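Fold it.
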Amino acid sequence: MKTFVKAGYRYVVDLDLEKFFDRVNHDVLMSRIARKVTNKGLLALIGRYLRAGVMVGDTIEPTAKGTPQGSPLSPLLSNILLDDLDKELEARGHRFVRYIDDLVILVRSGRAGRRVMLNISHYLPQKLKLKVNQQKSQVVKIEKLEYLGFTFRGIRIFVTNQALKDFKHRLRGLTSRSWGVSMAERIKRLNCYLRG
């Protein structure tokens, strides 16, 4: 991202995909997976996983769309689905950064940003059956962007105050003397968190 800002891309199209994990179309996703996976048994297993349902209270409700949130497989499936969007943005020559369903596209002007926002807002429902949340999506200067816990001032990147506060809170919990775990376990979990 720093490279793009240095090259003069000072405006950002910050796209929010409305309820992404709740709205993933199973047919669209399975067709994308089937492009690479030829094993019918594995495809059937992934299909069953998507349709397994969710527990609401004491009952299991069927899932006709979406992927289970919190599952380790959901980020992988989202990357498979959004790979088409990545390729489309590359074909159009855009500079962008995407982490799972969080996407920013860097442009040189506010006018270009509004045009890109409009084009992508039409592309996503047509090709991937996804909707852009117009209330949360925006075209802003790079200095006003908060992306994945970071802010940008010129070409410098800073951690947001909220991300730093959350980090310190988590560290206090992992190093608390009242936490009844062995020192070895405490160090193991602390190292795991710091590496992550």
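DSSP finds eight helices and nine strands in the chain.
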